[in-house]
Amino acid sequence: MNARTKDLPAATPGTSGSTLQALNDWIAEVAALTRPDAIHWCDGGDAENAALIAAMEADGTLIRLNEDTNPRSWLHRSHPEDVARVEHLTLVCTPDRDEAGPNNHWMPPAEAHAKIDALFDGCMRGRTMYVIPYCMGPIDSPLSRCGVEVTDSPYVVANMRIMTRMGAPALARIEREGTFVKGLHSIGELDPSRRWIMHFPHELSIKSYGSGYGGNALLGKKCHALRIASHQARSEGWLAEHMLILGVENPQGETHYIAAAFPSACGKTNLAMLIPPEGYREAGWKIWTIGDDICWMRPGPDGRLYAINPEAGFFGVAPGTSKKSNPNALASIQADTIFTNVGVTADGQPWWEGIGNDQVPATDWRGEPHDPAVRPAAHPNSRFTVSARRCPSWSPMAEDPQGVPISAIVFGGRRASLVPLVFEARDWTHGVLVGASMGSETTAAATGAVGVMRRDPMAMKPFCGYNFADYFAHWLSFDKPGAKLPKVFHVNWFRKGAAGRFLWPGFGDNLRVLEWMIDRVKGKAGVVETPIGGLPVQEELDLEGLVLSEEARRVLFGFDREGWQAEFDGIGEFLDGYGERMPARLKAEWGRIQGELQGS
Ligand code: O2Y
Ligand code: MN
């Protein structure tokens, strides 16, 4: 443990863990409120991690997995009512309600502070308060931003160590810059009726109480890197997005970088780690993984958008991860991994539905003997936390302080009907509308009904820290003289046929679609123009070796005018929900396409 701060009594004024007065003052203020028994400043080192892990093993927070099959790997079981993000308890607390917008739950800042501070009052008695300095993004990148999370959960510390650049180098940067996002977290009593996740973008602060799970508790991730960062990005001229970033290397050795936004649990991790189909592999194609969930982009001196992944690890969905769906993820999690809410075999191996091996789970995610009639072995939102560096397709460019130049932006949703496999927006304004109109069927990543179609613009519905109307205006503002913006596409890997089966094989075969996009970027392929955008000329999208039914070809590459008319009515109603604030340019673009759909 860090000798600087060991066993400091709670509420000791001026805890002096840092040379930055503002940081020490805030820690003293938080300690005075929460009254921990001790304060520990995390240095991020191996000794500190080993001590924390040993303590968690001793008290049952972590269960050691089979050391032979899964070295240095652990199982954590969360409270059974604390298994996902809680959107209805997640607030954006701006002084003006309209600034948060209809897309966010809102509370006035003073009321929010009072409500949550009452819960924080004395909540760390008997516990250690951990101070976690972290950096989102490469430690030496001008695009990166730092934060400090204070938490009473050692499990959060262990996860933040994997997911961010945490510890001494981050503290040094914070002391140099003098600014940081303040995140205060306590697991409290893990009582769902005493749970809030609050964001104060104007104060660059986050307060989270009553949950120890994922995005509710690892404050660098959704809270900082999306909700607070999107707000900051707007005022500083960049974009904080819910996007994977990958590099596609062709047989000539050229790499194009693509950023893609899909709603939660729609396969971002799988796409980011794609393994090319055999023929492509033999020809020399390769996918490089930069990030699987979050992307920060800003215009570079040449007018292109440059992107970094602010995260250092993956917090991926376990169920469905298999040798077939994502061999790179499976290889990544063979060691040094924290599993949360998965099942376990009798000999201590992690197990989940869709893992695709012949092991049998003995115990389910709640620690009870597994009975498939009672519940699945793994919770549908069970997760693995692992360092990105363990991924076989991890790109060294992920550490480039300047980021990678983005050639294409892809939006996508989970749509059983109507939406074709891929189409291209005609220009940036149309691309922003395509992103703003995204719809998808809901998944288990958040609490609530699964499989219900909802609008999820740019996959940011749960994560945009301000009014969507202003967010769309911010996106539009990138289209200015000198800008060399990426092409924008929309994909749907989830289209079903009349028999209810998926029509597109997905996974590695998605590279065929990425290749077509790159051909478009290079001006090597044409499109079939339709009101919704450019569809591929089928012969120009490489389908060799795929068995696609007649129905699949018709539907995946088809355009259903009547269906799209109804869709556009729905999109219009959605945009109108934002009233006068909605940019006129976006409404005009909607009107232009609506007119074309109606044949005028
Ligand atoms: O954060 C959680 O609790 C689960 S949801 C999640 C986790 C990793 C990456 N993305 C998401 C998401 O909901 O988009
Ligand atoms: Mn996500």
Description:
With 600 residues, the chain is α/β, with parallel strands linked by helices. The chain has 3 domains: 18-61 and 83-237, Phosphoenolpyruvate Carboxykinase, domain 1; 241-312 and 395-597, Phosphoenolpyruvate Carboxykinase, domain 3, CATH 3.90.228; 314-390, Beta Complex (Phosphoenolpyruvate Carboxykinase, domain 2). Strands 1, 4, 5, 6, 7, 8, 9, 10 and 11 form a 9-stranded mixed β-sheet that branches. Strands 12, 13, 14, 15, 16, 17, 24, 25 and 28 form a 9-stranded mixed β-sheet that branches. Strand 6 (128-136) and strand 7 form a beta hairpin. Helix 12 packs across helix 17 (584-597) and helix 16 packs antiparallel against helix 17 (584-597). The radius of gyration is 24 Å and the shape is globular. The protein binds 3-[(carboxymethyl)sulfanyl]pyridine-2-carboxylic acid and manganese (II) ion. 3-[(carboxymethyl)sulfanyl]pyridine-2-carboxylic acid is lined by residues 84-85, 213-215, 222, 264, 293, 315, 381, 445.
| Shape, principal axes of CA atoms | globular
CATH hierarchy: architecture of the largest domain: Alpha-Beta Complex
By helix and strand content, what is the structural category? alpha/beta
CATH class of the largest domain: Alpha Beta
What are the distinct ligands in this entry?
3-[(carboxymethyl)sulfanyl]pyridine-2-carboxylic acid, manganese (II) ion
**How many β-strands, per DSSP?**
30
Strand content: 15-25%
Strand count, sense and barrel status of the largest sheet are: 9 strands, mixed
Helix content: 25-40%
Tally of individual domains: 3
Radius of gyration using CA atoms only? 24 Å
- For the residues shown, what is the average pLDDT? 95
How many distinct helices? 17
Distance between the termini: 71 Å
Write the CATH fold name of the largest domain.
Phosphoenolpyruvate Carboxykinase, domain 3
What are the low-pLDDT stretches, counting only 5+ consecutive residues below 50?
A: 1-14
